[in-house]
């Protein structure tokens, strides 16, 4: 595996995918930010910044050693990659300075479920640390995530798009096994609050961020030279004729 290339998908540099996702958000946000501001009761700049950070963090799990080893294999030998959605959510709160409000909570939960529409059933909230260990994402006998060589450098290139985050940006090693359990516990408490009206509001908030992240992710993945059978590629290939995906890629939410 070339130690100077970190891939998001076969032959696609990790930084390129994040760049394309951010470009998709720039096209969407003029119409969506007013709605987000009302939904979260924050100003548009705060919503814009948090969506950018969410996009920045959503694929951090692809920087793991296990994921990179798999994606660099020849197509015939490549298996479905290990889960990667779990690792980005804790780092989002690191970049946000641990500001655990509704906006950051909804964004973290959207990252956890961005490859499924039923994240609570996938283990991301119920047993993320156990899942990470079983799938080989953790260094044996430690609390440390096993990152690919060059992962920090690849991630730093994406953070460079956000100069205001520089003081909060830390090494990927700051994400520990305990980080996965801690954020899962926090998000369970946040999502399952006692009041029904608040639970409904928070579901709406998560779905809004989840929808934005899916649109940006799919549109970026659709720009790859060749659709491969990686996690996003397989999803796009299977659903290419679906009307909703055509809307995402041919207009719809775009200005």
Search tags:
single chain, 255 residues, mainly alpha, two-stranded antiparallel ribbon, 56% helix
Question: Explain this structure to me?
Answer:
A two-stranded antiparallel sheet has the order 1-2. The chain is built from eleven helices and two strands, in the order E-E-H-H-H-H-H-H-H-H-H-H-H. The protein has helices at about 15-40, 45-55, 65-70, 85-95, 100-110, 130-135, 150-160, 175-190, 195-220, 230-240, 245-250, and strands at about 5-10, 10-15. The longest helix has 27 residues, at about 15-40. The radius of gyration is 17 Å and the shape is globular. With about 260 residues, the chain is mainly alpha-helical.
> Multimeric state of these chains?
single chain
Give the structural class: mainly alpha
Q: Looking at the structure, what is the overall shape?
A: globular
Integer-rounded radius of gyration = 17 Å
The largest beta-sheet arranges its strands as: 1-2
> Treating each run of at least 4 consecutive H or I residues as one helix, how many helices?
11
Catalogue the unreliable spans. 118-122
What is the ordering of alpha helices and beta strands?
EEHHHHHHHHHHH
Helix share, percent:
55-70%
Count the E strands: 2
Give the N-terminus to C-terminus distance in angstroms.
41 Å
Please state the average pLDDT score.
Answer: 83
**How does the major sheet shape up?**
2 strands, antiparallel
């Amino acid at each position: 595996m070339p130690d100077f290339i970190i891939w998001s998908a076969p032959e696609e540099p990790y930084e390129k995918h994040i760049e394309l996702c951010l470009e998709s958000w720039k096209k969407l946000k003029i119409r969506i930010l007013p709605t987000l501001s009302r939904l979260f009761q924050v100003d548009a700049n705060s919503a814009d910044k948090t969506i950018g950070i969410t996009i920045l963090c959503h694929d951090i799990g692809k920087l793991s050693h296990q994921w990179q080893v798999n994606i660099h294999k020849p197509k015939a030998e490549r298996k479905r990659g290990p889960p990667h959605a779990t690792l980005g959510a804790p780092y989002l709160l690191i970049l946000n300075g641990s500001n655990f409000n509704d906006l950051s909570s909804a964004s973290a939960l959207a990252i956890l479920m961005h490859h499924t529409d039923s994240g609570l059933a996938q283990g991301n909230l119920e047993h993320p640390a156990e899942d990470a260990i079983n799938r080989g994402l953790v260094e044996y006998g430690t609390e440390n995530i096993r990152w690919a060589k060059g992962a920090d450098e690849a991630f730093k290139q994406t953070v460079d798009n956000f100069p205001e985050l520089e003081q909060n940006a830390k090494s990927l090693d700051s994400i520990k096994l305990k980080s996965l359990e801690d954020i899962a516990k926090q998000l369970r408490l946040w999502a399952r609050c006692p009041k029904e009206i608040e639970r409904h509001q928070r579901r709406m908030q998560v779905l809004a961020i989840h929808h934005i992240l899916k649109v940006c992710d799919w549109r970026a993945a659709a720009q790859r030279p060749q659709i491969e059978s990686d996690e996003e590629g397989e999803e796009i290939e299977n659903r290419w004729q679906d009307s909703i995906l055509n809307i995402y890629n041919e207009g719809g939410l775009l200005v």
